[in-house]
Amino acid sequence: MRGRPSIYHFEMLIPIALNCVVATGDLTSKKDVENALRGANCVFHLASYGMSGKEMLQFSRVDQVNINGTCHVLEACLEFGITRLVYVSTYNVVFGGKEIVNGNEALPYFPIDDHVDPYGRSKSIAEQLVLKYNGRPLKNNIGKCLYTCAVRPAAIYGPGEERHLPRIVSMAKLGLVPFKIGNANVKTDWVYVDNLLLALLLASMRLLDDIPGKEGRPVAAGQPYFISDGSPINTFEFIQPLLKSLDYDLPKSWIAVSHALYLAKIFWAVYSMLYPLLNRWWLPQPFILPAEVYKVGLTHYFSYLKAQQELGYVPMVSPREGMAATISFWQDRKNKSLDGPTIYVWGIILIGMISLFASGWFPPIGPVPLLRSIGLMLFRSMFGIRLAFYLATAAHIGEGMYAWRLAKRVDPDNATGWFWQTFALGFPSLRLLLKRAKKVA
Questions:
Q1: How many structural domains comprise the chain?
Q2: CA distance 180 to 255
Q3: Which of 3, 33, 162, 202 could join 72 via S-S bond, C-beta 3.0 to 4.6 A?
Q4: Signal peptide position in this chain (predicted)?
Q5: For the range 366-374, what are the long-range contacts, defined as Cβ-Cβ under 8 Å and sequence gap of 24 or more?
Q6: Helix or strand or coil: residue 83?
Q7: Percentages of the chain per state (helix, strand, coil), in multiples of 5
Q8: The domain containing residue 408 runs over which residues?
Q9: Span 320-351, pLDDT tens digits
Q10: Of the candidates 290, 314, 335, which is a domain's last residue?
Q11: What are phi and psi for residue 326, nearest 5 degrees?
């Protein structure tokens, strides 16, 4: 930024490697925000909460971060004489479950009370606040104003993106993508991270008020802009090359949006009842929620023509190049982490081992008599049941030890993890390690 010897990055967690000065803090704390923004001349406000998963159900926290936090940023800009604010918004300010084909910035805001989740509602309120602050005079800089604009990006992808793809990949790894939603004709937008970065930089430049011929009238001041790669595509078609490159399956069957919504509402109800536990690490993410059904199951894509005409935005990375870089990143990430079978394999083996142990040693209560009957049918005697458990346990221990020794050579950082996983699952885990060893060799 002009007039600033360094770039400041304001986060709740310290990133591992950034070529900038990091100021840690909480966006909901006015003092933290002021400490971070003091001395700046341009702010990129990217922070948000509640985009997906359990976060979506934390209404109070969503409003605190997305609305109150944005107010803190706006007030700090006025207080410290910051002349430019670029706000990263969302398609959800105009999309809420109704099809939009090649939309543009002339579309009205989606009715606040009709949003199916607090994220879209809060981001809409925050964006409108940001744009209304445009042109407000700075408190200690007579004659100067705060200029603001809003960038509305499509779903973001690329190396290091931590919102959309990590959840999709982790669910596919566990085999929890059993069907596609909507139909093959549904199209949505995506934007590669470098293209979004370009749009943000262009927007900040178009907020300058000292450009010859534009003094006091920045081009982007008070304006919203849709930003995408400009290549609408079905979400499941988009992620297929990535999942295929990672050896994860993508289902072939489709279900209607209406049916997916029923399922999503069940998860919404269940997780709402678990509200006090939403921040617990051990509580898994809901399978899907209503807003996510709309995002993948209904067509909604927009033109970036206004951004092209006013900001000079043209995607510099094509979708093919962006996906290639994304695939490379995720393959490298997979090779550095502990791989594992689907949740169904986990369930079958662990339930099987527990059932075998229970049928051999537990007293005849609850389901034990039924389990014991099945065991006797398979192994003929109590001795046979217990012997089968001993042999299975011995096999798992042996496979675990072999996995540990092999991992020490091909994946030393995860050797302990490979031992415990193979000890629990046996060959289904060892098979994945052998496959990795073959690639290394």
A1: 2
A2: 6
A3: 33
A4: 1-23
A5: none
A6: coil
A7: 50, 10, 35
A8: 343-440
A9: 999 999 999 999 999 999 999 999 999 999 99
A10: 335
A11: -65, -45
